[in-house]
Structures are given as structure tokens and as C-alpha cells.
């Protein structure tokens, strides 16, 4: 009996190891807006320097699975990103695969409306597949704070 149970358990383990990693549940627009509102409140509470340090902390309070805060100044310089290689770089000319100027679109929303959504196509960080994405943008002082979700 013990051998049979052991064999069954080994089969389940082997099958489980062959299953692809399940994608996380889709995040909602409401979650993205809430993350930005939380980040803006934190920015106003602790100031720019501390807030940006926390936004750039990969294990910080502004990273929740696929949700994370990113930030730009009004010239297109990245101030916060899950990709540390782009922090401090001017990304004004970055375009999605369809040629849409994503950073310029963020700045346009920030400067004309103060807050709003920008749609674009972006590679999914886990699968690498191109997917529709939307980012909620909010301007605070002379920067924008944003969070995106895959559609």
C-alpha cells in the first residue's frame, strides 16, 4: 500500500512540474488607480527623494505582482522603474511596437489633464508576448506617477 501511495504522489509531483506557471489574475483599472493614489499620498507625506527611493525599491510597498509604480519628470527622464537600467535616462522617444510615443503620451496627459489613461502595446514581463496595456497617470508637482495594467 505504501509503495502504491508513493508512486501516485510521485506521478502528481511529476505532472505538477510539467504544468506551465499560471499567470496571475488580471489586475483591474481600479487597482492601478488605487496604487497611484497611494503613491501620490506617500510622495506628499515624505517628499520627493524618499518617495522615489521607495518607488524604486523592488520589494517595497509600491510593487504588487504586475502592479508597480513608475515615474517620469516633465522632460521624459525616468525617475522610478522596475528596470533599474532606465532610471535616470531620458526616455522621451520610447515608442511601443505600433510606433505610439508612450512617454510623450504620459507627459501629454499629465500636462493637459493632470490625470488620465494612456493605452499602448507592451511585452508582458513574464510571457514576453505583446499585449494591450493601459497606464493611469497622475501629475504631482513636476513629475508624473503612474501604474499600468495589462488588458
Automatic annotation (TrEMBL):
It comes from the Bacteria. GO terms for cellular component: plasma membrane. InterPro entries: sCache_2 (IPR033480). GO terms for molecular function: kinase activity. It is a multi-pass membrane protein. Keywords: Cell membrane, Kinase, Membrane, Signal, Transferase, Transmembrane, Transmembrane helix. Pfam families: sCache_2. Residues 1-23 form the signal peptide. It is found in: Cell membrane. Residues 18-104 form the Single Cache domain. This is Histidine kinase.
